[in-house]
Amino acid sequence: MKTIVHAIDEMKMGGAQTHLLTIIKEMRRQHTEDVHVLVVLFDDTQFKKELKELAIEPISLGLRPLFEKRQFLKAYKKIKDLLQSLEPQVVETHLTWSRLLVNTAAYQLKIARRIGFEQGDVYMNSIKMRLANYGAQFFFHKIIVCSDALKKWVMQTHNIKEKKLKVLYNCVDLQKFAPVKEKDLKAYLELEAAPPRYTFVSVGTMGRGVNKRMDISIKAVAKLQKQNIDAGLVLCGDGEQRLELEQLSRNEGVEKQIYFLGNREDVDKILPHCYAYIHSAAYEPFGIVCIEAMASGLPVILPDSGGIQYIIEDKKEGRIYKSLDVEDMAEKMLELINSNTAYANYKKAAIKGVEKYGVRAYVDKLYQLYG
C-alpha cells in the first residue's frame, strides 16, 4: 500500500486540474489499496462534483496571504510540516509553485519517489523562475512533460537535463467522453431558441496569465455570420477577460450566436452536442480538451503552434490553421461546414485516433515510475 500525495497550486478549471482528477480516478480503480491525498496550495476549488465522486476532501493550505506578503519561508514550513505528518511514499507535484516548494520539501524529507508534472507555464519564464526551475530539477526523480514540443521548450527555457524528463502524452477517460446519438444543444442547455446550425465549441480559461485568445474564435464566427453562414460558438470558461469578450461579441454583432456558459462541471455532456471543436490559444503544450472533444465525436480545428498541432493529422481528424489568423480559422471552419463527407470522415477518425490517449495505459506507465 502506498500513500500518494498529489499537490497542485490551485483547483481552478483547467487542463492540469482535469488531468489530475482523471488519473486519480483511474489509480483508485486499478490500485484500490493505495491512499490518495490532494493538497491545494491556494484556496480555489471548482471541482466539487468530481471531488465528491472521488470521495476526496482536498487539504487546502491557504498560502495566498503568505505569498502576497512574500513570506515564502513560512509557506515552505507549512508545506513541509504537512508532508512530514502524512508520511507519503510518493509525492506528485503539478504546476509551478507545487513543483518548486512541495517537491523541495519532499526531497528534504527523503520521500521515496518525487515526480513532477510540467504542463507548460510558459508565462512564468522570468530569469528568477528559470533559475528556480533549473535548480529544482535535481530534487526530482522524473519530470513528466505532456508533449515533445513541451520537452524541447523546457530544455531550452529552464535548461532541464533530458535525462530528467519523461514524455507522457496527457490522457482522457474514454468512458466519460463519448458521442451522442442525436445532437440537441437547445434541449441540453435549455435554450429559449434553437442555436445556430453550426455551433462550434471552445473550452478554456478567460484569464490574462494563461490567455486562450477566445477573441480569435469569436471573430472567426463573426466572419462566417457576415457570409450568411449560420454559425455560433459555445464558450466554457471564465476569467477577468470575460466582460471584454462579451463586449467583443456585441461589437461584432454576434452576441446572440455566442454562448458564454462560464465554468462548467458538465463539459463532457456539452461537447457531443456541438458541431466541432476550435482552439485559438497562441501556444498550447498539449490540449486535453482537444482529445476530450475528439472522444466526444467532434472534428477539431487546431493552431499550427505548440504540441497541440501534433495530436491530429491535417485533413484526417480535422484541420490545422495558421495560429492567431482569424481569416484562416474561419476558412477552415467553412471548409468543414461545406463538406458533409469530410465532416463524417474527420469524426470517425477522431474517435479512432483518441484511443491511444486512454487513461488506463497512462496510469500503468506512471506506476512504473513510482517503482
Question: Which key terms come to mind for this protein?
Answer:
seven-stranded parallel beta sheet; Rossmann fold; 371 residues; 2 domains; alpha/beta; three-stranded parallel beta sheet; Glycosyltransferase family 4 protein; glycosyltransferase activity
Strand adjacency order, main sheet: 3-2-1-4-5-6-7
CATH architecture of the largest domain, by name, is 3-Layer(aba) Sandwich
SSE run: EHEHEHHEHEHEHEHEHEHEHEHEEHHH
Q: Estimate the strand proportion.
A: 15-25%
Shape by Cα distribution: globular
Let me know the largest β-sheet: 7 strands, parallel
Pfam families: Glyco_transf_4, Glycos_transf_1
GO molecular function: glycosyltransferase activity
Organism: Haloflavibacter putidus
InterPro entries: Glyco_trans_1 (IPR001296), Glyco_trans_4-like_N (IPR028098), Glycosyltransferase_grp1 (IPR050194)
Describe this structure in words.
- With 371 residues, the protein is α/β, with parallel strands linked by helices.
- The chain has 2 domains: 166 residues, Glycogen Phosphorylase B (Rossmann fold, 3-Layer(aba) Sandwich), CATH 3.40.50; 171 residues, Glycogen Phosphorylase B (Rossmann fold).
- A 7-stranded parallel sheet has the order 3-2-1-4-5-6-7, sandwiched between helices. The protein has a 3-stranded parallel sheet with strand order 8-9-10, with helices on one face. The protein has a 3-stranded parallel sheet with strand order 11-12-13, sandwiched between helices.
- Strand 5, helix 6 and strand 6 form a beta-alpha-beta unit.
- Helix 4 packs across helix 5.
- The two termini are 12 Å apart.
